[in-house]
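Re-running the complex after MR caught last week's input typo. The corrected sequence lines follow. Everything else is unchanged.
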Amino acid sequence: MDKGKRFDTIRARIKENFVLSQDKIYADKNRLDISVSKQRTPAILFFCKEQLGFIHLMHVGIVDWIEDGTLELVFMLWSPTEKLRVYIRTRLNRENPVMENMDMIWPQLNTYEREFKEMYGIDFKGLIAAEEFLLEDWDGPPPMLRDFDTEAYAQEVFHTRPGREDAQDVREAIIKRSQEEIPDFAKKYSRQ
Amino acid sequence: MREKATTLYLGPQHPGITGNMMVRLKVEGDTIVKATTEVGYLHRAFEKLAEKRNWLQTFTLMCRFCVPEPDPMEESYSRAVEAIEGRIVPERAKYIRVMMLELARIGSLLLWHAGQAGSTGLYTVGQWTVGDRNYILDLFEELTGARIYHMYIWPGGVRRDFPEGFADKVLKTMDYLEGRLKDYDNLMFENSIFQKRTQGVGYVSPKQIIERGVVGPVLRGAGIRSDIRIDDPYEVYDKLDFKIPTETSSDIWGRALVRREELRQSIRIIRQVIEKMPEGAIYNKVPNPQKWTIPPGDALARTESSRGEIGFYVVSDGSNKPRRVHLRGAAYVHAMTLLEDVLVGQNISDVSTIMNSLGTCAPEIER
Amino acid sequence: MQNDSRSQKIVDIIQAYARRHSLWILAYGTGCGAIEIPSTMTSRYDAERLGVRGAATPRQADVLLITGYLTVKTLKRVIRVYEQMQSPKYVIGFGSCAINGGMYWDSYNTIKMLDQYIPVDVYISGCMPRPEAVLSGFGKLQDLIKAGVADGPKRYEENFDWYRANQKKIIKNWNFADYNW
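Corrected-run output:
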């Protein structure tokens, strides 16, 4: 059976059980994209795992769409028997991101949730884990949000070595130091 | 009589720990009753930095995710970018990429030999394998100009074609390595200390492994024939002939045998690649990197590294900088939750053996 | 008096000779530079012929190799480790990210100048520095010890307040014991 047909079967089975806001198929890329609301996400993940055989969680991606005011979570599932990919997308409100804890479906989601909590400030209801994951004594905003300016923060907090302020022409400095002649053909690449 | 529990901090400064991380152990006598992993010592915020770099600048960051084996990271990122953009990679470049990946796998496996044997007290293995790894690094150096971070596989192809006589050198190195393999067997796998320290230690049930999404040699050591190179073929792996070794014991010994065989298979793949490699272009030129924009979209590229499946999730919003680059490391799924469970009931002296065997790589978790 | 200073000089020379030929490095791979240390220590480059070898604990080690970037979390442990080491002790900063931040110049979690936080004797540049560069760095350190200018602990003690202020600026929760110098 070709991939398009198998995708159709999967889509039909999901549609039987859930009312979906939107779904698209990228058959050429070996994947099925499904957008769902955040309330429905745990149920559909569980359904895909238990009923459709998508037992392997490849990755959970997270994207900060600051223009839309949302955080997008992408659960990427893989079926080792069918060799197909299903992406389940859900969007959270960026101002107050709350989601249900889902680490009973896949235990490794616990690690992902800990990271997202720290890096994006998503509150997973019912997550049992230590407070800190990667950062220690961090008191700023969640750093992976797009409005956190890492360069300004680094300038403010850390000492920087003088001489890195701007992009200098290294060759000029070398010529000055070593009195080396620069060949004619190389001069046209000079920044001046 | 119940012994009093003591808390023991293993790492971050500890020679047996794989990388800069910490395992907090609660021990009763010599037996571990609770283990907690603590990471974050290597968090450099690559994924944050990528927001400010353009597509090509990001690619120089990507290889630094994992030190023992940077090439799968480069390849995976490049392939994700190509998938979004629809860029076609020349056939020869694909073969060169496979060769690089396999050379990197060999280098990483040789380093693993050193770590795994060193953690059981066999330090001579490390002297030999790390010494032999230098021959692989020499090949990298001749081809790419660098020993560790090559920045060679980039979106659109590879950066340089073979220098003159390079293919022969690769084959010669493979012959040399193949001759050395029986020495490693003698020294390591037939050593009764190594066997006693690994057989039956660090058992993980296959059910647990599948449930947790653990990949790579750990999965194959539990008797499941799963490899991204076969399951979800990329580059030219579907045109090559190689075996996926499996073992059923699911302990450190089984995983060691899987890796031992993988080393042989990698040598086999490299020979085939050199033989089948076509002539032609190596690079589908990208535009001026400052102006190079990629149409909106997202892609996940999966690559089999020596520690298992890694994946790059790359999102583009149509600008000249990536919206999001998100790595899924092989160690990400097991180092926190699985390791904590496996260590319970084990001996303190086996912690480092188990960590080496699972392939825990701290920078992959923290990024 | 003159006799005393002369004998002191001889003692210094012998001390420096002994110290520069037994540099034990602490096995703490703080960053990705640690990948070249196995190559440096094993058969091809064999750093042990120069007296360089690994030591497992801070108390036995002479050299603290900072292999690459230091995150804020690691910096706290590195300071702790450095203060636990016994004099004479030397620090080698390894890789361009230890020198000036390298490619992590705008990262919020890595320090940019190592010598603001602990006294550094030798920097080895490069990303990664090759084993030859590492060996040449150790050679440089040996020269400095011979000349008697590798005096990191002295600098640390004399400018202790400055170093501590810098460290405390970054490490917010300073919850470990202050050592009695």
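None of the earlier attempt is carried over here. The radius of gyration of chain A is 24 Å. The interface with chain C takes residues 135-137, 139-140, 143, 148, 150-151, 153-154, 157-161, 163-164 of chain A (CB under 8 Å).
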